Amino acid sequence: xxxxxxxxxxxxxxxxxxxxxxxxxxxxxxxxxxxxxxxxxxxxxxxxxxxxxxxxxxxxxxxxxxxxxxxxxxxxxxxxxxxxxxxxxxxxxxxxxxxxxxxxxxxxxxxxxxxxxxxxxxxxxxxxxxxxxxxxxx
Length: 138
Hints:
GMP Synthetase, Chain A, domain 3, 3 helices, single chain, 3-stranded antiparallel sheet, 3-stranded mixed sheet, alpha+beta, 32% helix
């Protein structure tokens, strides 16, 4: 996996991923940024949410569950002093579908955070991780 991050100006940076996608990041105005794009730590939190959502949907589909949507809401606390690592992250999954089995949803979420989602497993080294979920019948 590769990524190149280039300084644009002020506190704006452009990342180009190995798969050829570009991502803009910017700092808060008090840090010299213009608030034009997400902060790097917001990108990490979004990446963790995307990683686990991907796992949950894939596991449910492979288990022949009729999943139609998956939304993961994350809230995080950070340390007050540098390095301001995440100290707590709460994941709340809203999994929608037809006749979804609660035990299948719970199993998919557990497999993601215990085995497959490298992002949340890494973040779990510094942060207390909490998972809650609900099923929405469609």
